[in-house]
Amino acid sequence: ATTYKHYPLRLVIMSATLRVDDFLENKRLFPNIVPRVIKLESRQYSVDIHFNKVTKEDYEEETFKKVCKIHKTLPAGGILVFLTGRKEIQYMVERLKMEFKPKQKKSQKKVTTNEVVKEKQESEDEGEGEGDEDMDVDYNPVQVLPLYSMLPPEQQFKVFQPPKEDHRLIIVSTNIAETSITIPNIRYVVDCGREKQKVYDPHLRLSTYLVSWTSKASADQRAGRAGRTGPGHCYRLYSSTVFSNMMQYATPEILRVPIDQTVLQLKALGIKDLC
């Protein structure tokens, strides 16, 4: 008869923001032995944190302005932008592409004197300062890429490839880029400070996604993305007061949503003893 060796189960729990004490002090999980804790110190360069003086509600517009300012005024380096969901990301990607689309040369476009005077008058009416030559400046081209969990794998892999020559890489992502992956050559991080969380609505009796403030641990993880391959900068689009009022850690999902779907899935897999 064939004999099989049964090896003991070895479980490795990995996390960048795990509250270790919650596990070590849980006698129900580990009644007889305390598990080993192994800390892996990754190389981290210095990251300068910049807060906004005022926290504005329209974080999408603030994000767009900040990314444009970085590209126009700061040295070369990739930009990683954190937004909350797919629709926001797709809109921001298209908007940035249009903003830094190579401008048509003057020789290719004939403009009459009356049109020039009219455009200048419209700019002054909109409050733009005199001598603003931004419309005539052709900035270095950009390569803007989205990143979120539902994106096809072949498109997700593009963020790891070097950008085109003389192009600045701009990646607009959800919190998937906080800890799951490390994108090379990121020098600037723009953090809107929000994320989508799955919560239970007792009135609708359904689980739904709401945009809420991120935790301090998540904010620190986002900032750290700018210091993986060299010194960097993190621009938080909220004030230091807002940051100080954030939760230290996010509430675990098991405490935010019902577990009925998880229980039914385990039952379907044939797991009977759930106690």
The class by helix and strand makeup works out as alpha/beta
Instruction: Provide the CATH superfamily of one domain.
Output: P-loop containing nucleotide triphosphate hydrolases
Q: How many beta-strand segments?
A: 8
Helix percent reads: 25-40%
Model regions low in confidence, pLDDT < 50 over at least 5 residues: 107-133
pLDDT averaged residue by residue:
84
Net shape: globular
CATH class of one domain: Alpha Beta
| Main pleated-sheet profile | 6 strands, parallel
Give the end-to-end Cα distance, rounded to a whole number of Å.
35 Å
Specify the CATH architecture of one domain. Answer: 3-Layer(aba) Sandwich
Q: Count of DSSP helices?
A: 9
Order of helices and strands: HEHEHHEHEHEEEHEHH
Cα-based radius of gyration, to the nearest Å: 24 Å
- Strand order within the widest sheet? 1-8-5-2-4-3
* Share in β-strands: 15-25%
CATH overall fold name of one domain = Rossmann fold
InterPro entries: DEAH_win-hel_dom (IPR042035), Helicase_C-like (IPR001650), P-loop_NTPase (IPR027417)
Pfam family, one: Helicase_C
GO molecular function: ATP binding; helicase activity; hydrolase activity; RNA binding
Organism: Euplotes harpa
Textual characterization of the structure:
This protein has helices at 20-24, 59-73, 86-99, 113-125, 153-156, 176-179, 216-224, 240-244, 260-268; strands at 47-51, 78-82, 142-147, 168-173, 186-191, 194-201, 206-213, 232-236. The longest helix has 15 residues, at 59-73. The chain is built from 9 helices and 8 strands. It has a 6-stranded parallel β-sheet, sandwiched between helices. Strands 6-7 form a two-stranded antiparallel ribbon. It has 275 residues and is α/β, with parallel strands linked by helices. The protein has a domain at 43-100 and 139-269: Rossmann fold (3-Layer(aba) Sandwich), CATH 3.40.50.300.
